[in-house]
Design goal:
1 helix; alpha+beta; globular
Amino acid sequence: SRCLSRSEQEPIYRVILWRNNPYHIYTGIVEACISKKRQSLEHPMWLISSHKKLSASSKVCLSTGWIDLFFDQFIPHFEYFIRLNELGKEA
């Protein structure tokens, strides 16, 4: 299947976050992909949010801005452990 993001090479996971699912608080589409440019992981998200500034603020816990910042910090660590698992200590 094709990635929704234009900078992605290959989709690994695509998750649709439904509003009525009790296991998450977001609604939208999330992908985990391999980037075309850097051969690294990317995690584009298209989330539905309120028009209020607080819902997009990265300083408010569990807002869409906060979750974006969380994945910006989490993905490099996740990528490191994937490379370590695949390449060994050479990574």
